[in-house]
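Board notes (copied after class):
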Amino acid sequence: GAGRVTATPSPMPTIADVPTPTPTVITSSDLAVQAVQGYFTDLQSGDFASASKLLSGFSLLEANTTAGQIADQLAQMKAQGYAWSGLKVVDAQPFSDNTILVHVQYTLTAPDPKTNKPVQSQKDELWPVRQEAGNWLYNWRNVIDFNTLTVPVQEIYGLTIQPLQLTRYSDHLTMTVLAQNATNEAIVLGMQNQVLATFHFGSQTVDAVNTRYI
C-alpha cells in the first residue's frame, strides 16, 4: 500500500540563538607594548629615522635634544658595532594616567671598551612609554618624569649650592644643582670618602653615586 511521509520543519533560529562575537578590547598597555615593539623593530633593522619618530617630545625636551640628533646618534652607535636583537616583552604596568612601564628583555651587542670587539649582554629593563596627543611613544633614556625643586640656597666657605630639579628614570634618580664658587681657589667635591648627597625615602636612605667635581 501507499505510505505518507510527513516532514517537520526545523524552527528558524532566533536572534538569541545566534552567538555574538566578543569584541576585542585594546587597552592602553596593549598600545604601549605595540609602541615598544615598533621602536625596537626600527632599532634592530637600522631604520633610525623611523625609530626617532617614536620618541616622546617630553623626553626629547628633557634631554635637550631633537629626533634628528637621536637618529644620528643611533647611526653612529651602529657604525661602532652596536646592535639590538631578541626583544621579549615580559609585562606592562600603568605608572600614571599618561605613562606605562613596559618590562622588556633583549640582547645588546656593544664594543668592548678594552678590545673593541663586539660583546653581547642581556638587558632587563623597564621602558617608560608616554601618551602624547593620542599616541604612545617611548621615553628616550628611560626618563619617567621630573620635579622642579624649591629649596633654599645653601652657602658654606664661599660655595653656593641650590638644588634645581629631581629627575626620575626607570632605574635611578638624578638631582640637578646650581653650584657657584665665590672664592679664588678651586673647590673639589666628591673626594674618596665624601658623600655628595643622600636621598631619603621614608625611613630608607640611599647615598648618591660618588662623582668628583671641581
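Comment from the instructor: Helices lie at 28-45, 48-52, 57-62, 67-79. DSSP finds four helices and ten strands in the chain.
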